[in-house]
C-alpha cells in the first residue's frame, strides 16, 4: 500500500514534471516529454563529440611521440649517441612533452565538461521517473545528480577505488606517458651535464614521479573536487516537488 501511495503522489500533477505548471504556459504532457527527450539527445550528441575529440587528441599526441622516437633512433644511428644526439633530443623531446601536457589538460577539460552533461542527463532521467516511477527497475544508469548518481552513469567506483581507476582512463594514461617522457628528458640532461649514471637515473625517476603527481593533482582539482562542492538538486532519497525546491 505504501508503494502504491507513493506512486500516486509522484504521479500527481503537483509532482509530475510533465503536467505541472511552472508559472506560465501549461504545456501539454506530450510536448513537455518531447522537450525533455530533445534535450536528452542533445546532451548525448555533445558527449559523443567530446569523446571523439578526446580520442583524436590522444591519438595525435601518441603519433607525435612515436615519430619522435623514430627520429631519435635514426639520429642515434648516425651520430652514435654523441653530443649531437643529445642536443637533438633536448630540442625535440621538450616539444613532445609540451604536446603531451597540453593533451592531458584538454582531456581533463573534456572530462570536466562531460560531468556536466552527465548531471544534465541524470536530471532528465529523474524527470522521466517522476512521470513514470514504475519504470525505475529498467534503468541501469543514474537518475540523481549527486555523487553516487553520477558515478552510476559513468559506471565508476565511488570512494578510494576511484583513485586507481583514474590511471586507466585516457587522461591517466597520458599522464603516465608524460611522466616517462619528463624522466627521459631529465636523464638526458643529467648525462649531458656529467652526472653519474645512477644519479641520472634517480633524477629521471624523481622527475617522472613529480610530473605524474602534478598532473594527477590537477585532474583532481579540476574534475573530482568540483563535484563535491556543487549542491545537487535531486539527491537520492528526495523525489518530486520537494527535490525541485532545493
Characterise the protein shown here:
- By secondary structure, the chain is mostly helical.
- It is 74% helix and 0% strand.
- It has eight helices and no strands.
- α2 runs antiparallel to α3 (83-131) and α3 runs antiparallel to α6 (170-192).
- The protein is elongated and about 80 Å long.
- The two termini are 28 Å apart.
- The model is unreliable at 1-13 and 241-246 (pLDDT under 50).
- The helix content, as a percent range, equals over 70%
Multimeric state of these chains? single chain
Query: How widely separated are the two ends?
Result: 28 Å
Overall pLDDT, averaged? Answer: 82
Label the structural class: mainly alpha
How many beta strands in the DSSP annotation? 0
* Largest sheet: number of strands, sense, barrel closure: none
Instruction: Output the helix-strand order.
Output: HHHHHHHH
The whole-angstrom Rg is 25 Å
Low-confidence stretches: 1-13, 241-246
Count every helix, treating DSSP H or I runs of 4 or more residues as helices: 8
Shape: elongated
